[in-house]
Amino acid sequence: TINGTASTSTNWTIIAKQVRDETIQQRNVNPTGTISNLNVTGKTFTLTTSGKNSKTYNVTTTDTTKFINTTSTITINDLQNTQTVRVNGVINRNDLNIIAAKVTVTRMPKKVE
Q1: d(Cα 29, Cα 31) in Å, to the nearest integer?
Q2: Residue 89 and residue 82: Cα distance in Å, rounded?
Q3: How far is it, in rounded angstroms, from Cα 95 to Cα 91?
Q4: What does the pLDDT average to over 77-90?
């Protein structure tokens, strides 16, 4: 999308105020789901939401991602597969990859006895 003015004198000219590449399709999201395929070294995991419109996201964390468990700060090393978390970040809707700004643990996995 181009936002600006067009001039038809001699040759067509566009004076752009804004140019947007809409193929990237990025926006802020905050889905809640279950962790699987946790890769602490690679700083990634898969997040699967539940319900009628369930989706599977690839989540990438960075050195600036904040990890929270209830009220305390944790690290990616404290995450576990089957935990329920909420991820706040920017999604690329073309490939469902989320770059996480914050990961909040909402429920610990059930203990196996």
Answers
A1: 6
A2: 20
A3: 8
A4: 95
